[in-house]
Structure formats: structure tokens, C-alpha cells
């Protein structure tokens, strides 16, 4: 606009607005994540994902591990019960990893390399934060880090290869993490009596043992409820 002396003046507010717009544009360009419309890819993904916050009625929360050998169904169970979009770190299995890991069925093409994460609210009052551990022995250091602060663990086992579950259960015992066992019933699993399973897994009498199908929501939730009941009983006895 024109000043009183006849010279042209620039509105300082306009200059500030231009500077702000320039700053925002430069910052966005530095991230390298902006598309042609100015929206980030992450925001586009979030638009399609409903956000579910923790209910106001929740009075407590617990960190729960979901452990077991590779291919036992940890990622499936967490994805089945999670009320939020689960986090999964699945990666394609490579020939290099195959030389180190135990053999799995040909249909198994991916594996968890860091963790799985999900959340479920029980009874509107208790939130369980579920952390799925990698099944391979070479990821044991990460496994132990995930165990820090865990109130308990659900150990998944596969009756087609019970021996593969020994390490995971042994790690829980070494870390003194209370746990329950859930036998994931695969379509080609042969039925076994509870006594035979307890004997084969060398479980203590008070350790809960349930049969579940990691693909079914109600079945998987019941397995988690069995664990929570066991944890409450254990804590009550210790107090």
C-alpha cells in the first residue's frame, strides 16, 4: 500500500504470513514425505484408520507378553483380539535366516523380527497391552527387553512340535514371569489329553492350560482371560 510520503510500503503482516508459509513448505520438503498436494503419506493412511481411545471406565492396565516359537500363531492371535490396528513387524524369510532358524512349514513365508503390538480392553475396566515376541532364538536379547515390566505372559504352543516351545517356556521361568499356556489348535493338530500335555511340557499343577484357536476372537479372548485370572490369583496369594 502507499505511504504518506508517496512511497510503496509492504504490509508486515503479509510478510510474516509469507514467511510462515515458506517455513512450513521448507520443513515439509526436508522430511521428504510430502506428495504433490502437500499431504503426507502417513496422514493419508491415518484417514482410513479409526482411532479408538482407552475408555474412561478403565481403572488399570497391564503389559502382557505373547510368546512361543516361530509360526505358532502369536501375530495371528494379537491381530484377532486387538481393538486397535495392530503393529506388526513381519518380514519375508530369507535364505540367510533359514540357516539359523529352526525349520518351519513351507507355507510360512514371513516372520516377526522385532515385535507385534495390540491392545484389548477386558470388562471395560482393564486394558491389556499385548507384546508379541520374535520366535527365533537369535532374537533372544530383544525378547528379554520386551519382558521388562510385563505382568505376565501367554505362551502359545503347537502340539505338532511341542519341543519347539520348550525354550520360550524356559525363558519365562528364568525371568520369573507368571504365565499360562494356550495350545493353538491347528486344523491338522492331533488331540491330546490335558494330562499328556502337562507332562510333555513339564508344567506345574497351578499353571493354566487351555485350548484355543488364534484365528477366532472369542477363543483367543478366553485364553487371555484365563491368564488374567491366574495373575490375579498369584498376586492375591503373594499379598
Instruction: Give the full name of the CATH homologous superfamily of the domain at 60-88 and 112-238.
Output: P-loop containing nucleotide triphosphate hydrolases
Question: How many DSSP E strands?
Answer: 7
Helix run count: 8
CATH class identity of the domain at 60-88 and 112-238:
Alpha Beta
Question: Layout of helices and strands, plus pairs?
Answer:
Elements: H1 12-31, H2 41-47, E1 60-67, H3 74-81, E2 87-92, H4 95-98, E3 110-122, E4 126-132, H5 140-147, E5 152-157, H6 166-174, E6 179-184, H7 194-201, E7 209-212, H8 217-238
Parallel strand pairs: 1-4, 1-5, 5-6, 6-7
Antiparallel strand pairs: 2-3, 3-4
Provide structural commentary.
- Belongs to the GPN-loop GTPase family.
- One of its GO terms (molecular function) is hydrolase activity.
- Residues 1-13 have a biased composition (Polar residues).
- Residues 1-48 are annotated as: Disordered.
- The chain has 239 residues and is an alpha/beta fold.
- The chain has a domain at 60-88 and 112-238: Rossmann fold (3-Layer(aba) Sandwich), CATH 3.40.50.300.
- It has helices at residues 12-31, 41-47, 74-81, 95-98, 140-147, 166-174, 194-201, 217-238; strands spanning 60-67, 87-92, 110-122, 126-132, 152-157, 179-184, 209-212.
- Strands 2-3-4-1-5-6-7 form a 7-stranded mixed beta sheet, sandwiched between helices.
- It is globular, with a radius of gyration of 25 Å.
- Mean pLDDT is 77; it is low at 1-47 and 96-101.
Amino acid at each position: 500500500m502507499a505511504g504518506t510520503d508517496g512511497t510503496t510500503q509492504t504490509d508486515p503482516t503479509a510478510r510474516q504470513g509469507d514467511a510462515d508459509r515458506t517455513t512450513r513448505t521448507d520443513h515439509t520438503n526436508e522430511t521428504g514425505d510430502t506428495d504433490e498436494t502437500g499431504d503426507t503419506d502417513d496422514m493419508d493412511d491415518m484417514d482410513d484408520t479409526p482411532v479408538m481411545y482407552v475408555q474412561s471406565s478403565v481403572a488399570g492396565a497391564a503389559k502382557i507378553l505373547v510368546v512361543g516359537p516361530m509360526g505358532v500363531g502369536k501375530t495371528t492371535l494379537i491381530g484377532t483380539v486387538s481393538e486397535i490396528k495392530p503393529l506388526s513387524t513381519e518380514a519375508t524369510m530369507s535364505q540367510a535366516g533359514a540357516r539359523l532358524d529352526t525349520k518351519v512349514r513351507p507355507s510360512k513365508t514371513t516372520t516377526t523380527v522385532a515385535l507385534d503390538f495390540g491392545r484389548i480392553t477386558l470388562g471395560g475396566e482393564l486394558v491389556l497391552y499385548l507384546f508379541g515376541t520374535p520366535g527365533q532364538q537369535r532374537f533372544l536379547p530383544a525378547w528379554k527387553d520386551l519382558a521388562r515390566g510385563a505382568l505376565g505372559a501367554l505362551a502359545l504352543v503347537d502340539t505338532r512340535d511341542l519341543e519347539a516351545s520348550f525354550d520360550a517356556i524356559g525363558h519365562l521361568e528364568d525371568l520369573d514371569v507368571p504365565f499360562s499356556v494356550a495350545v493353538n489348535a491347528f486344523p491338522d493338530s492331533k488331540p491330546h489329553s490335558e494330562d499328556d500335555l502337562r507332562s510333555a511340557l513339564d508344567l506345574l499343577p497351578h499353571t493354566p492350560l487351555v485350548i484355543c484357536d488364534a484365528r477366532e476372537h472369542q477363543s483367543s479372548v478366553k485364553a487371555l482371560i484365563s491368564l488374567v485370572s491366574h495373575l490375579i490369583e498369584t498376586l492375591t496369594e503373594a499379598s
